[in-house]
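Hello again,

I reread your note about wanting to compare the complex against the isolated chains. To keep things tidy I'm splitting this into two emails, and this first one only covers the full assembly. Below are the input lines as submitted, including protein chains and any nucleic acid or small-molecule components. They are followed by the predicted structure of everything together. The single-chain runs will come separately.
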Amino acid sequence: MYRTNNCGELRIEHVGREIVLSGWVQKIRDKGFMMWIDLRDRYGITQLIFDETYTPKELMEKARGCGREFVIKATGTVVERSSKNPNIPTGDIEIKVTELEILNKSEVPPFTIEDETDGGDELRMKYRYLDLRRNPVKKGILLRHKMAQEVRKYLDGQGFVEVETPVLIKSTPEGARDFVVPSRVHPGEFYALPQSPQTFKQLLMVAGYDRYFQIVKCFRDEDLRADRQPEFTQIDCEMAFVEREDILNTFEGLAKHMFKTIKNVEFQGDFPRMSYQKAMELYGSDKPDIRFDMHFNDLTETVKGKNFPVFDSAEFIAGICAKGCGEYTRKQLDELVLFVQKPQIGSKGLVYVKCNEDGTFKSTVDKFYNNDDLKIWAQKMNAAPGDLLLVLAGTKKQTTSALCELRLEMGERLGLRDKNKFCPLWVVDFPLLEWDEESKRFFAMHHPFTSPVKEDIGLFETNPGDIRANAYDFVVNGVEVGGGSIRIHDEKLQSTMFKTLGFTPEEAQAQFGFLLNAFKYGAPPHGGIAFGFDRWTAMFAGNDTIRDVIAFPKNNAAKDVMIDSPATISNEQLKELSIKIDQK
Amino acid sequence: MYRTNNCGELRIEHVGREIVLSGWVQKIRDKGFMMWIDLRDRYGITQLIFDETYTPKELMEKARGCGREFVIKATGTVVERSSKNPNIPTGDIEIKVTELEILNKSEVPPFTIEDETDGGDELRMKYRYLDLRRNPVKKGILLRHKMAQEVRKYLDGQGFVEVETPVLIKSTPEGARDFVVPSRVHPGEFYALPQSPQTFKQLLMVAGYDRYFQIVKCFRDEDLRADRQPEFTQIDCEMAFVEREDILNTFEGLAKHMFKTIKNVEFQGDFPRMSYQKAMELYGSDKPDIRFDMHFNDLTETVKGKNFPVFDSAEFIAGICAKGCGEYTRKQLDELVLFVQKPQIGSKGLVYVKCNEDGTFKSTVDKFYNNDDLKIWAQKMNAAPGDLLLVLAGTKKQTTSALCELRLEMGERLGLRDKNKFCPLWVVDFPLLEWDEESKRFFAMHHPFTSPVKEDIGLFETNPGDIRANAYDFVVNGVEVGGGSIRIHDEKLQSTMFKTLGFTPEEAQAQFGFLLNAFKYGAPPHGGIAFGFDRWTAMFAGNDTIRDVIAFPKNNAAKDVMIDSPATISNEQLKELSIKIDQK
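Full-complex prediction:
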């Protein structure tokens, strides 16, 4: 028997009990005549004590022979500590050890197994099994477990059926790049790994399953950005015989359940909703962080015609009002200018206006705008004395995105983006289609199965770019946690959609024939949503990246540096699969 | 709003209520002046009634326009039926329809959506979304959902942490064939899909997670047999600081929980255990069906030396006693002879002995064995008058396997294999290694990480073939539902194991370096088990194959005939992935 208890559960009421613990040596303190070992397992840390006044010499030496991360088994008695440690739950007691067994030795780990470690990113990735021992990582993994259980508990309770959809499916040209799997049995043919179970969950609706969910791995062969992984996990859901309202209500229920059970946060009333158009107008983002307002003010019409060439030549001029920042120093203001000029933001410059306490204004464009002009700006932006106006100009697209970043930066600086405050939001009525200048065709903004808003269906003939999708995103604190739509369930409408996306009927049939075919046999109205499970977990964990809520993540080059994958395979394997490496 | 209720829940107490139902048209009966539509959804069937005495003509015509599998929405009033149907839960009521909306039409389905359908296997696979509407398939899918929830509920309650292990891993030469995934970012390199998360769950133990589980997709590129799928699902579990006893107890707990919650079957006391050796001796199988005994009797020494060349030249002679089959007709006996002569059984012939009620015997070998001889056989086999002895001879291997099949066949014929009776069994102490004559090397019977039984470790030097593994299988009714082992956690022992399997240290390092490395940093003693989730579900569903408890299975050629996968991919894709098709 390796243990009677774990290292996190012994308390003062257990004093006198004979116990056995197993775990890892976290720390050894050796005073010569006395020694302490902090023994760690998943559940906590318990202190072992050795004292030459009663510990046999042999046992004392054995304890001394232990090193960090050794796996040991200790038998002994729970005793009260003379100097208690109020920082850990087991801090009132320690174990007077009578027997010690070294279950396994450890080399000195390549980085310290502490909350703050000395190991760099790549080193910790290589020894991920050691990094997983650290509290901050462990917390994320345990949180993820708890969240998965709560998601399923809630959805099961709501009559959702968990169905596993296949992983070996078929490559489709639409969307991101697929990972493919050569078939040995069918030379020259390939499976593809799913980017999402989209078509399968729709088939389940056709099959009558009515409420489906799955926590499921999805795959995208993209060039990785900071917060992307080639394999990621979705909470994938679909419902039949529903309208948008039913779906939003159902999954608002799920979100509230998660906030309550995981974060102990309760929401009164419904989550706010905002149209895509409004979100872009007010915050320059389809996933606005509404923990704070500081919304955009369109100044294009207001500021032109004063001979300031930058404004006069700009397509779009807009600003935000940073409350109480009128006293910003030159250094702080210079930082903001540098911020908007960063290549990834890409603005040429920043116009700012300080609203002085005496009602006057001080701006970087005093040469072109007098006090009365600036007063109009201030009025338009609802500014009060002591506020700071930040104005950007340029093309609509670039200015919008830059001002969005600047707003978030100001929110950060003003402490308005508290990780423990949660502001959920439904963003609705996305555009159905996006025009791509390069390929001169429309792409589906969500995916080709998204239903247009009913009133807009006529626009397919006249102005497809204006069609609103019956789609919605679930946004929390500026993070897109989930998204979905009502789907097309009508074969004809689906064909129109494919046509609008530039598919010939033959191409549509070749790629999605099974779905179009299924729609011929009684497809019910349906819709659904998918949540980014990694991202949701990371947000609840308070992490900025998803990496630490994934047990074995890949690095930015899509490599698992621990197992050294991807790797070459044998010539026999290649031959069996009827493929050759293209040396180029 | 599409519905106020589902099609399975209305009862006599709802009479008078105004309701809305949506679903599929299961059946239409048209008497001219009256019409009934059976409306079906996931939850059941409700009868709609139309009667020209009160139904407007227009509505009557609309109802008449519906066909099988149309999706309709019906508004109306719950009324009591005049002639009730006791066979369905909603049989006391019907819906007097006031409004009808056809939500979607349906072409005539290619096979009937009935419990017994007229569709063949391939047709039903091609239209899987229609087959999934049929009750027998739906039951399996819903059962699978329920089992998944119960598995997680139990394991979560026992402190197990669900951790997702990666799907894009690395190919290893040991075991079955891997599916591989070419890397675009790293030309010439490949990921592999996991045959099981074995090494990752062991790394989680090294990482201190102590109790892990996951319901997880696994992949094997094998030539498919009847009950295999290229992707299948495992309940994968691992524990640290445990001995075999801890694992068997924990998962016996899980199994009992599943039997109780899913099948309402309760077991008193512990599940029986049997050594591999005993199982082979008594039943010729490492997964014996112990719903009935009919064990093997070794007659090799008993029957030789009577000038019967078949026996005298045989390596192994053994028989079973079929209770009460002494009256089998010539036709029945001929069937048994033909059975053992089938190519997949492969016996040359079958010797049988009828134990007559008068104490005499009648056999196919009366020429060589007199009544006294046969009496000795009967005594050895514990036969009583009225029994039938069935004896096979040949090589040990072939005879054992043929007699095992014959035993199961007799069990079937005697009705001893009741699907509603469950006889679980732990088979323990498997051999660690299997000798392969062709490649002249040992293979791991379980996998290379399985720990030998402690007492047998010395045999690595002298007789590796005799080493017993600390491994166990969970067998129910002759089906291997799960299997696992205590793992090696010592780097040196793991190296010895690799060496015995013919790996050079360099090969071992190249393939499993990350695991050997991990073992250097404090690996705890650990072990685990994995259950075949598809198979377990199929057994609880009473299905013979796993196919119908998988929503979208592949056929025996590893093809998804519904989506037509695998399929060719574009030349651009191949080029991006730096691979070419090897035309041969």
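For quick reference: Chain B has three domains: 12-104, 137-274+423-571, 292-413.

B.
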